[in-house]
Amino acid sequence: MREERVFSANLFGMILLILFSIAPVVFVPVFKILNIPKGLDIVILQIALLLVPTIIYFIITKQSVKEVLRLNKINIKSVFIIIIIGFLAQPITVFLSLITQFIFPNKIGMVISQLNTMPLILQIAIVALTPAILEEVTMRGIVLSGYKNVDIKKAAIITGLFFCMIHRDGNQSLYTFAFGILFAYLVEITGSIFSSMICHFTINGSQVVLASILNKVISGGAGGQEPYSKGIHSMSYMQLTIGVVIWFIIAVVFFKILMIFMKKLIKVNKYEQINNNNEYTKNYKVLNWPFYLSLVIYIITIITEIVYIYK
Questions:
Q1: Nearest 5°: CA angle at 281, between 1 and 271?
Q2: Whether residue 115 has pLDDT greater than 70
Q3: By residue range, what is the domain housing residue 183?
Q4: Total domain count for the chain?
Q5: Which of 35, 133, 144, 171 is the most exposed, having the fewest neighbouring CB atoms within 10 Å of its CB?
Q6: Taking the model in full, what pTM does it have?
Q7: Which of 146, 156, 142 has the alpha carbon at shortest distance from 189?
Q8: By C-alpha distance, which of 179, 175, 173 is closest to 306?
């Protein structure tokens, strides 16, 4: 039974990855024909590729939505701790993004730049609120639920990999994998998907707000996509290397503080006591053909991206 649950979880993750892989071919031409405005196209894609498969999943499996998604209450102390964790994660995001910018341009920065003419509340809704709900429902909801009673370390790593893969972006690869692991632990510790939603929203939302402030300070609100589209090419390797070293030191400090708050979250939710009462299958097999095929698809995607960048 457990093996079937893991297989179903990995199969669902693989299907999402395939949908995200073919989406540009199907949706982009349609968006151009219909002249769908920037921002709305992102929301439509999220709904089509995440919400619709989720609805179909529950119709087919007939599983309990509340149980699978862990739609459980979360105490107010945990909410405050999770928000703090989200803010503490920002320097880690910068550091991991800088590493990948040795190879890949900052696409997400370019997307935020394209949205900067919109009201800030709309930017937050598009970049922070929608992903925080829909990505968490699929990844920390459906996929993670397949790993129930499997060692949390394995569950967090595999779901983190799927979270990384569905983004299909080399620049986001390291920090989406890291945060995928973090979000899985938050859900496991609190027993509620609202924990990962809150943290996800905090991370993305604060990035949007910070980008908006920097845009107004630096360019007087005029915007511009050039620095974002250039990525590493907007600075020298020496500048980027120095930036990586500085942000590494900052990230290490913030990571240590983040872990202190994770321990506080564990204490507030009495997670260690709960965890000790559960029996985990330590050597349980979690790797199967949907996972391996997903990995192959992702590797091909990244190689294609590199070839396109440096052709």
A1: 110
A2: yes
A3: 2-310
A4: 1
A5: 35
A6: 0.90
A7: 156
A8: 173
